[in-house]
Amino acid sequence: MKPPLLLIGQGSNDDAYSAEFGRFVHRLRCRLDQTAVSGGYLQHATPLLGESVASLVARGHHRLVALPMSLGRAERDVAAAMALEQQRHPTLMYDGTRPLGADPRLLALLADRLTEAAADISRPRPLELVGARPRLRAVESAPADEFPSHVEPGETAVVLVGEGSTDPDANAEIHRVSRLFWETHAYDYMTVETAFVSVTPPGVPGGLERCRRLGARRVIVVPYLLFAGGLLERVWAQALAYGAGHPELDIRCAEAIGDCEALADVVIERYEEALQLVP
């Protein structure tokens, strides 16, 4: 019997993130129908990692493959969390995987989101209040004469937005991804700049301002995020706020990578690689 696959999410208070993460776990269960697949969060959402591990152990699984569902460097957080679970369950053993990172298939998915945003004539979405928290909703397309009807790729810049971290190596990795993305999928565009949602500069407004000063007529904001949720909405909200002060600049926002078969292919490959190391 193959060891279970445990997908580890960072966790979010946002229901959209939890829902999409849950759909992706279900997709993996369908793809790996002879393997137990479970998901757990490090914080902020249920099931927590400890609950998922306890459930697997109770079902007789004492070895598993742990895969962080993150595009950042989550190895330290996951290692610390799994060490705690091993203290709680002394018989538990686990194998890690290679990070998802800048896999060529993920870069291709980013290119798909870029293409979708370039073809969509809607502006960044304004905020409306739903319950106690701001949420985003779609609006009607901008009037046809508000922006130039045709903008060459050479006049269009891209801002790739990562989460941001206190770890310099993690932030440097986002810059590396931006360069790889520019050279492999966005070489026709004026530039691919790097920005971060929080913690470290430049933020989304800083990335947009650099593109404006370089002479871009259109800027497409591409979130380097796996799933929808609070972080994605913060990216959109920051882009919207900047755009309100620069109406001459056509700013468009792409979606996150999202639950899809291509992402599942990458995760399954990481799982199968880890299995090769299991004695």
Automatic annotation (TrEMBL):
Pfam families: CbiX. The keyword Metal-binding applies. CDD domains: CbiX_SirB_C, CbiX_SirB_N. Gene3D superfamilies: 3.40.50.1400. Keywords: Lyase, Metal-binding. This is Sirohydrochlorin cobaltochelatase. GO terms for molecular function: lyase activity; metal ion binding. InterPro entries: CbiX-like, Sirohydro_Cobaltochel/CbiX.
